[in-house]
Design a protein that fits this description.
Helix content is 76%, strand content 0%. By secondary structure, the protein is an all-alpha fold. Helix 13 packs across helix 15.
Length: 340
């Protein structure tokens, strides 16, 4: 029971409070699913900024652990202070779900089936020999990318393919907070949370595409669920990645980060204010943390969107502001070429 409460706070309350802090500066109507998503993006972005210099300085893992948790808790406290004045029975009542229609119930059922299967059944993936093992070695050795997860030998240099996108460190931090083995965190705790986040992104995109028509957004989720359930025609599709290996960074990139970039850019198109662009910048930092492929794919995604909307709207602002947002990807890309 205590572990369940800890998981609830770590996976739900903390990201939600961080997200409400982000939405506070976006000055938009509160959306709990959006805030929950923004909270995870902020967690990833902060960890990326802290982890990379500490890895190169060969700092102990515990230093990163206490630094990150301290910053996160400080932001949560700030969010509580800034938002608590707005919380009353009237303001909280709008978050109470209304009577759902049949399509919403069907969408929740289909998503729930996917989550249930991902938790109850076991999928063995060879990449866990690196990703999950790296999280375990990080904790046991109290070091970061100094010891190879495959054989326990010390690295002669930095593993350039992985060191700039240290997503296994997030697994290690969550495992340390909950005092649960990283394998259990990756295979049992991450799948339901990350699958829910992925569909939350699609729900928000659906609301935007159909102008906040919840019934149409629910139909959209049902259609996507069918695609994902029957999408294992290759082990390399994002469908397979979501249901079979979502605890890995590249799966999160395909199913959460890249769709989030679409969502956040559409927000910027609708209202080009600084808060929206800063949130997009945070998502670009998160893309660097999640996977080394994100360093390249995220700016390509954003650049394509910016180019299309710049031509359509005849505004160069989208290109210029998007160029600022991809600065983290450019920096880490150059760093990759330097240390390779």
């Amino acid at each position: 029971m205590l572990k369940a409460i800890q998981c609830f706070f770590v996976f739900i309350i903390v990201p939600l409070m961080l997200g409400l802090l982000v939405t506070k500066f976006r000055k938009e109507k509160k959306n709990l699913l959006g805030a929950w998503l923004f909270g995870y993006l902020l967690e990833f972005a902060i960890l990326q900024l802290l982890a990379i210099p500490m890895i190169f300085l060969k700092v102990k893992f515990t230093t990163l652990f206490y630094s990150w948790t301290g910053i996160i808790l400080a932001f949560v406290c700030i969010s509580l202070i800034l938002n608590c004045r707005e919380w009353n029975l009237k303001s909280l009542s709008k978050y109470i779900p209304q009577k759902p229609d049949i399509m919403t119930i069907l969408a929740v059922f289909l998503i729930g089936i996917q989550i249930l299967i991902s938790v109850v059944y076991t999928h063995i993936d060879e990449d866990d020999a690196f990703y999950v093992a790296t999280a375990n070695v990080t904790i046991t050795e109290n070091s970061m990318y100094c010891v190879a997860a495959e054989d326990g030998a010390e690295y002669m240099g930095f593993p350039t393919r992985y060191v700039l996108s240290p997503f296994p460190l997030y697994t290690a931090i969550i495992a340390s907070i909950l005092t649960i083995h990283p394998t259990i965190v990756a295979h049992t705790l991450f799948p339901p949370i990350f699958i829910a986040i992925a569909y939350s992104v699609y729900w928000l995109i659906g609301l935007r595409l159909w102008e906040k028509d919840k019934k149409s957004a629910s139909v959209f989720l049902c259609f996507l669920s069918i695609l994902y359930i029957w999408g294992n025609f290759s082990i390399f599709t994002n469908f397979s990645f979501l249901l079979f290996r979502i605890w890995q960074g590249k799966a999160m990139l395909a199913n959460v980060i890249l769709p989030s970039i679409w969502l956040l850019f559409l927000d910027c198109v609708e209202e080009s204010k600084i808060g929206n662009w800063v949130t997009l910048l945070i998502s670009m930092l998160a893309s660097c943390f999640i996977s080394s492929m994100g360093i390249a794919l995220a700016p390509i995604t954003l650049g394509g969107l910016a180019l299309v909307f710049s031509i359509r709207e005849k505004k160069i602002d989208y290109l210029l502001k998007s160029a600022v947002c991809v600065i983290p990807n450019i920096v880490y890309g150059i760093l990759y070429l330097v240390i390779k």
